[in-house]
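Figure caption, in words: inputs first, then the predicted bound structure.
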Amino acid sequence: MTLIGGQTDFGGATLNMAFEVGRSEALTKSAVNFTHSAAAANTCAKCAHFLAAQSTCQIVEGPIAPTDGCSVWVARG
Ligand code: SF4
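Bound structure (iron/sulfur cluster present):
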């Protein structure tokens, strides 16, 4: 999956709109067993939902660090 690369093709306004939509539907961290000490193989940095440029996640609320993780982790394709 090339989520990060794809974002560079969007203009700022489009990107901000997508970000707000994502936030309005975001899961809470407690609902997904969010952790700041994820196993190395299952960190947000290696998850398909991670938005590195914004330090956020497509489906989980709030700021997200590359070393975080949660129960809905999906391997980056
Ligand atoms: S592991 Fe969870 S919080 Fe981290 S990017 Fe993936 S879905 Fe989002």
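Residues 47 and 76 are 5 Å apart (CA to CA).
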